[in-house]
Amino acid sequence: MTGYLRSFRLLFPLWHETAGKLAGNNHKKEMHMKKEPLFIAFASQKGGVGKTAFTVLTAGILRYQRGYNVVVVDCDPPQHSIGLMRDRDLECVKENDSLKMALYRQYKQKPQKAYPIIKSEPENAVENFYRYMREQETEFDIVLFDLPRAFRYMGMIRTLALMHHIFIPLKADDAVMQSTLQFASVIREELVSHEDYPLKGIHLFWNMIDKREDKGTFEAWNKTICDSKLHLMTTCVPETKRYNREASSMQGGIFRSTLLLPDNQQVKGSGLMELVDEICGIIGLAEKQGESPMTNLM
Q: What's the rounded Cα separation, in Å, for the pair 182 and 128?
């Protein structure tokens, strides 16, 4: 185990002394809510594995296609990547008539306003969400948290413990995999197995799959994951540049946007819809009546 993960694990004995009451009573002050929102996080202690892209894409599909009341909590200061992406999207729509028309058609097809983005420090993410909810007097179905890659502070453990599900993208790199599996195992052993916390599961999925990669490599890692008693999802997301395509580029159609659904042609073969469907099955989201398939808006 790396020195970083060893230090991370050493925080848990201190955390467990007070966490039961904090986690168990966290939502009691919100008992006036008709329903409790689902807290979902894409997390990894490694950068460049796609957690921010998957947060944005999942939020967009759940909001703009499936009609759920979604909010994103951007917990990655100081840059707040998703907040900056929303700023870029707004500027692009303002300057591009084709994007204006695409946004109009999307809203006409399914009139859903843009999901809000809350910028927060990671240790205060849950509290800031509840504060926003009270201020807006709105209830949400799903809260997606984009967590930073550094989990060095006690407050971050509390945020992790208050999630209902954590999804971890995997990349077929030995150094990344070793660290990621150690991280996932620590979270499972310290939080998922603890009855005082709402965290129900950690779910791993392959991302950036290169078809040229030796199948034996994946088979070996899959066996290691199974032996570690970690949950590996069936969806595998291929290596593709489309996950980087924003409204600011416009080459080959939009894929990643906080305002627009990905272009239908870009979705094919991306593994995105399969991933979102599997996530919905895991977290218990039923398909909404009248749900419409994606269509080209450009």
A: 30
